[in-house]
Amino acid sequence: MTNIKIYLTLLAVLAFHAESRAQQPKAGATPKLVVSIAVDQLRTDYMEAFAPLYGEGGLKRLLGQGAVLANAAYPFAPVDRASAIAAIATGTTPYYNSIVGGRWLNRETLRPVGCVDDQRYQGMLTSETASPAGLATSSLADELKVATGGKGLVYAIAPFRDAAVLAAGHAADAALWIDDIYGQWCSSTYYLQTMPQWLSSFNATNAPGERIGRIAWEPLTEQTGTFNHYLQTTIDGKPFSHKFKGSQRFAEYKRSALVNTDVTDMAMRCVTNTGMGRDKVTDLLALTYYAGRFGQQSMTDCQMELQDTYVRLDLELDRLLTYIERNIGLDDVFVVLTSTGYSDVEPADYERFRIPTGTFNLSRTASLLNMYLGAIWGQDMYVETIYGNQIFLNHKLLETKKISIGEATGRAQELVAMMDGVRNVYTSLQLLTSQSAQTEKTRNAFNPQHCGDIIVETAPGWRVLNEDTHESHIPDASYTQFPIIFFGAGVSPALAPASTAANPVGIERIAPTIARAIRIRAPNACTAQPIF
Questions:
Q1: At the N or C end, where does the chain have fewer CB atoms within 10 A?
Q2: Distance between CA 83 and CA 403 in Å, rounded?
């Protein structure tokens, strides 16, 4: 009898635990596909201004059904497309991932090089060489490959070479971009040895090179061509119309709203033909869209084009989300959308309107610095070269003269700091050995392999001029508001934490958030916490 009681008691206990387990929510499966979308130069003010022209399935759907962080920021400055894409992919800053910009100075040759240039790997359907060798840390794509033993598929698709390669990382199946000369979707032998048949077929019928002579960029609808929703005014004259001709036609096309259709078409073709999102192993699709000004014009000269760009971007996001929903299911897809977080600096005639401005001549500064250091240590070429807003000292000469880098940069800093138009001067040793709130953004943008010994920060509105190369630019340190949006598997609007202009969410937190969602390790230089 005792044994029977024990037996019945045991059955009751097991039944209770079984019922308890059945009532508990099941642990969510990892998403089958992550879609990471970076929109080059997306801005919140433009996105909001053109909202009356959007449909229901693109930006409105993401904003209404996604977890939206309204204010995001990059923890370094300056920012450009390459450094932004690298930061999103690696979850860290140029100080660690080494991508300080789209171009930097090669200290051995003293010539500018592209951030993904690599003569060891020839282009496929392009004359451009490319590899991610300049990316010094692992990326989210790399960690996905490691975690899945190479089974997780990774493709990066962008109009631009640097965006595609940096988003793809070191271990991707392919990085695909549009060639500037032939208008074909192309890649590098770093990723591919032969072009897949599906990609060759797509190029034969759908590449920009096959259509460029038959297309023109005109307003998508009558509203986008006749009424400016940003300025709330009706335009005078005919709506815009742009055709793409000449040797720069594909470079111009890639900076128009039409290129976003190509990105969506290629993304859908890639998912269809590679089987992304079809098994239990998580795959990653990294996309770059374009939302900048057309032809590097001022906002005044391309207001209607910019409006049409946002309307077409909304349409392409609608197409992409609809395709994903129908073919994979949103419950199995984790979508992240953000911006590269900067705007190309517009040409501005400050002098005409009596706005404080000036020109900081870096070439003359280098000459004065040579004279100043020569008066101290004997005449010689102490400045090896200049680039951007940076001064590179001659390390071999300093070593021969037994002058420390610290002493030389300190002397140089003293001289440059007294010049008109200079607000801050940083030395390489200062950025390497000290951290403070004042220098944080500049330090995060610095990398000793690719940056100079002296970094000059000019006053707002001042132009930096290099007389030797006739290059000039106005640095822009203003804040551009842009969002981070999470959408799809496991995401609800209630998950979004508060973000304000005074306390924006750092872009470096995207990678660890995705890594947590798909249960892999964050990139190896990422120390930021997941957003949720």
A1: N
A2: 34
